[in-house]
Amino acid sequence: METMEQVRPAIAAQSRSTRTARVAATREQIALQLSVRLRGLTPQQAQELAGLARERSFAAGEVIFNEGDQASEIYLLLEGRVFLGAKFSESAGHVTFASIGPSEFLGWSALVHPHRKTAYAEAVADTEVLVFRSRELLDLCDQDPAMGYVIMRCLLATVGQRLIATRQRMLDIFG
Asked: Is the model's pLDDT at 2 over the cut of 60?
């Protein structure tokens, strides 16, 4: 009969093998999601980008970030819903100006100076995101300008949509 000390390395190797297969499958799924969201990426570019991503979960009601926070990460929503808002005054509290869902980015301000969050973000449903460190993402864009163009074009569209949503919300509130 084998002892635990003899069996432990085999169990650890099997666990690593299973985990490696699961991570590889997940990376393939992430690459596919990225290629759908970021139209124009080649399969190789989507794989490179997927290599930077890590998954994270937020529970309903959890604050993802606050306006003014240091911004070093950008998120791509996979599942769930997030409200974005801003604090216009101490008495008004946070005013929601956008509700975003799967396949949408948030935290774009991590890619531009002064690298501060421009809004408040709260998960209003259990939410799954891909997280990208802004420095790694910018480095990848510098290394592959064609990929950088696709990413920045998509993020510029996101910023434009948020500006329109914010303007509309302001008109709704202040007439």
From this structure: no
What's the CATH number where 11 sits?
Answer: 2.60.120.10
Q: Given phi > 0 = left and psi -120 to 50 = alpha, else beta, which region is 61?
A: left
Number of domains in the chain: 1
Residue 66 phi/psi, 5-degree rounding, is -110, 150
- Give this prediction's pTM: 0.79
Domain containing 143: what range? 4-174
132's tokens: 């990208």
How many residues are recorded in the chain? 175
CA dihedral 75, 79, 80, 81 (to 10 degrees): 50
Alpha carbons 158 and 73: distance in angstroms, whole number: 16
